[in-house]
Design a protein that fits this description.
Blueprint: E1 25-30, E2 33-35, E3 39-47, E4 54-57, E5 62-68, H1 73-79, E6 92-100, E7 107-115, E8 118-119, E9 123-128, E10 132-134, E11 145-146, E12 152-157, E13 163-170, E14 175-181, E15 199-205, E16 210-214, E17 224-228, E18 233-241, E19 251-257, E20 261-266, E21 269-271, E22 276-283, E23 289-292, E24 298-302, E25 314-319, E26 324-327, E27 333-334, E28 339-344, E29 351-358, E30 364-369, E31 379-384, E32 390-394, E33 412-415, E34 421-429, E35 439-445, E36 451-456, E37 459-463, E38 467-476, E39 482-487, E40 494-496, E41 499-500, E42 505-511, E43 520-522, E44 524-532, E45 535-549, E46 553-558, E47 563-567, E48 572-576, E49 586-587, E50 592-601, E51 609-613, E52 620-621, E53 625-627, E54 633-640, H2 642-649, E55 656-659, E56 661-672, E57 675-685, E58 689-694
Parallel strand pairs: 2-9, 10-12, 11-13, 21-25, 26-28, 27-29, 36-45, 37-47, 49-58
Antiparallel strand pairs: 1-3, 3-6, 4-7, 5-6, 7-8, 7-9, 12-19, 13-18, 14-17, 14-19, 15-16, 15-18, 20-22, 22-23, 24-25, 28-35, 29-34, 30-33, 30-35, 31-32, 31-34, 36-38, 38-42, 39-41, 39-44, 40-42, 43-47, 44-45, 45-46, 48-50, 50-54, 51-53, 51-56, 52-54, 55-58, 56-57
Length: 695
């Protein structure tokens, strides 16, 4: 082929769903937690998780062992009736025995399942002060599940159209707390509207009279009841979905009893590593003054513990060292680059005002953190000049980092003044709310990053000697080309496609050396990007797991760490023959791109390997082709769509395409519900290469 010159540049690096990446999908855990210092057996449901062999937690004090469950075809048919809401995505089950050490702090931890093919997505597992009480039967008001002692964590799941009932005894004057975790256990459900379990609870007395009801806790989906019992006797707690849906992943944990519950902890902001004296509000606390000291910068949560047990987790945000923090300052306090302000909308002043010293043509960037730190405020910020004229006003600003938030209520104000002078910043609640729980933090920045970068999946599964890929997603604007920097990879590992060439999504491939040890390797991913001529900065690329909500919306859930998980080698490996460090060009007149694929086979492996494009589009195609048992290499011809070819001849800019080839060995055919699927016995990929057409 004439004038063949192409751009083949590769980028490789981690985390993604490739042919080798995640094969397991966890849908629910039941019960999704256990008491500290005990051993609990739980069930996990999902897709392909019956192949799991290990359990991975993000805390060394929690250990899990997989106990496979063998389910008969008859029981599967019975469980999946035509009129229920069961999903094939939850059809596989495993039992897990989990041991929780005595020194593990209460809270939510990441649980993942691992098989020889890789790791699953994460689901929360709760460590609690209180013992589990497992729902034993389908119940009714006349025939409830009887809770013999409190405090306890009630564990169950609602069936389609179902209502669950739990009976407990109480005494007059006791302040009972019923705190539900439902959406917190499965944040997003792909095939449900509004995309999560929407619990509703109430407590009735022995005569069926309602004592308390809750369907939300302020802006949280999961409800909380705090009520004082009017008399001695039996009471029944009732829970169901708001629109009476149900399934195994509509599961819940309800902490019930005369237990500590914090409704407010002030101030809610501090400096990392520095002690903050706080005032508590809530029930069953005993103490009203505590001290908090958190080493980690950013969004954290703290718990209050007394002789009864641990309370709910309360958000606490910390600033980096070197920033001066003014707690509840007087009217018209000065907000500057070195001084942040922690305040709230008091009952006497529903609008708060602060001073900013403006400089001509120097941008003013003010960030408010409130709802992201558990505040009730739906804030509005206004900036006024010295004459009282409003020159800028802002309400909500979406924060892509907050993957669990669907209503973004914190504003970021940006304004460039034309003259020097003092300006006034006003803060109020959009709905004119006020009180201690309408708290917020104000911080003045020189600038904020114009983009956020995420890497998924958070665990990159790479076969020993093989290749896998991960995705980097960009939100906002990345104005100039940037490079990815991977820290922590051992010697011998190679990557491809580390230069971001544009777009909101970029793939990177990572190849492990042949014979690499099977282990987990924690790594870091950074993005090096230019901010001005000759100046470059490093930004974090945040590890996340992706979850879909209500058939459409995709959310990024922050993960505890980023790691490469080296798994057992496949019996073959695919590679390319050209130098990935160099760029090559193909003429725009070329109608095919020849690529040589080399296969390294283990002795005795003779299965045919089917080749296909790993990243399909309307521009390129590849006819069905296989590497036969006697072949060790193959030249494939990637075809260009003639219509696309003519269109690209007229374009000024030359687009870049990331490409890779997947080689699959077909496996067994399985049936899930009414659908049949053919699993891949093995699936390997080449490193990523970049194709650019030259005029």
């Amino acid at each position: 082929m004439k004038n063949r010159k192409i751009i083949l540049a590769i980028l490789c690096a981690f985390l993604a769903i490739s042919a080798n990446a995640q094969k397991l999908t966890s849908g629910y855990l039941f019960p999704a937690g256990g008491q500290v210092g005990t051993t609990v057996e739980i069930e996990a449901g999902g897709l392909n998780i019956n192949k799991a062999t290990k359990v991975v937690f993000n805390h060394p004090g929690i250990k899990g062992v997989v106990i496979p469950v063998v389910e008969s075809a008859a029981s599967k048919r019975k469980r999946r009736r035509l009129n229920d809401q069961s999903s094939p995505q939850l059809s596989d089950k495993v039992r897990i025995k989990i041991t929780i050490a005595k020194d593990v702090p209460c809270g939510l931890y990441d649980l993942r399942l691992q098989s020889p093919k890789g790791l699953s997505n994460m689901l929360p597992f709760e460590v609690s002060s209180y013992p589990n009480f497992i729902e034993e039967k389908r119940s009714s008001l006349k025939n409830p599940n009887k809770v013999t002692s409190l405090p306890a964590v009630l564990c169950g799941y609602v069936a389609p159209g179902g209502i669950d009932y739990f009976q407990f005894s109480g005494h007059k004057g006791e302040t009972i707390v019923a705190s539900v975790k439902g959406r917190q256990l499965v944040p997003y459900i792909a095939d449900a509207v509004p995309g999560w379990f929407q619990p509703v609870i109430k407590i009735v007395d022995s005569n069926g009279k309602e004592v308390a009801f809750s369907d939300d806790y302020f802006h949280h989906v999961d409800p909380v009841i705090i009520t004082t019992l009017p008399k001695d006797g039996d009471y029944t707690l009732i829970i169901h979905d708001a629109i009476y849906r149900g399934r195994e992943d509509f599961n819940y944990r309800i902490q019930l009893g005369v237990i500590p519950f914090v409704t407010g902890r002030y101030p809610a902001y501090g400096i990392a590593g520095k002690k903050v004296n706080q005032s508590l509000e809530g029930v069953n606390l005993g103490a009203t003054k505590v001290a908090a000291k958190v080493k980690t910068e950013g969004y954290n949560s703290v718990l209050f513990t007394n002789d009864i047990g641990s309370s709910n987790a309360v958000p606490f945000y910390t600033l980096p060292k070197g920033i001066k923090l003014l707690q509840y300052p007087k009217e018209s306090a000065l907000l500057s680059l070195t001084t942040a302000i922690s305040d709230s909308l008091s009952s006497t002043a529903r609008v708060k005002r602060y001073r900013i010293e403006a400089e001509k043509r120097v941008p003013i960037v003010v960030e408010l953190i409130g709802r992201r730190n558990g505040s009730r405020i739906d804030a509005v910020m206004r900036l006024k000049d010295r004459f009282g004229n409003v020159v800028a006003q802002v309400d909500d600003t979406e924060d892509p980092i907050q993957g669990l938030i669907t209503f973004h209520a914190d504003p970021i104000l940006k304004f460039t003044p034309k003259i020097n002078g003092e300006m006034i910043l006003e803060v109020e609640d959009l709905h004119r709310g006020h009180g201690k729980d309408y708290h917020y933090l104000l911080r003045l920045h020189k600038e904020l990053p114009s983009f956020n970068a995420f890497v998924s999946p958070a665990y990159i599964t790479t076969p020993s000697g093989g290749t896998s890929l991960f995705h980097v997603d960009i939100t906002g604007k990345l104005r100039r080309p940037a490079n990815l920097v991977i820290k922590g990879l051992p010697k011998g590992f190679t990557t491809s496609s580390l230069k971001l060439r544009g777009g909101r999504r970029w793939d990177v491939s990572i190849t492990a050396p042949k014979g690499a040890d099977i282990k987990r390797i924690p790594i870091e991913l950074k993005m090096e990007y230019p901010v001005s001529k000759g100046e470059r900065k490093l930004a974090d690329v945040l590890p996340v797991d992706k979850m879909m909500q209500a058939f459409y919306y995709e959310h990024r859930i922050p993960a505890a760490e980023l790691a490469v998980d080296v798994i057992e080698a496949s019996p073959y490996r695919l590679s390319l023959t050209f130098d990935l460090e160099e760029e090559q060009l193909f003429s725009v007149d070329d109608e095919t791109i020849p690529v040589k694929i080399v296969v390294d086979k283990d002795p005795g492996f003779n299965d045919p390997i089917e080749l296909m494009l790993g990243k399909k589009n309307n521009v390129f195609s590849l006819d069905p082709i296989s590497i036969l048992p006697e072949e060790t290499e193959k030249i494939i011809h990637i075809k260009l769509n003639p219509t696309s070819l003519e269109r690209f001849k007229k374009r000024k800019n030359r687009p870049n395409w990331q490409m890779y080839i997947v080689g699959t060995v077909k496996g067994e055919i399985v049936q899930r519900g009414r659908r049949k699927f053919q699993n891949a016995k093995y699936s390997e990929m080449t490193p990523i290469f970049i194709v650019q057409l030259k005029r």
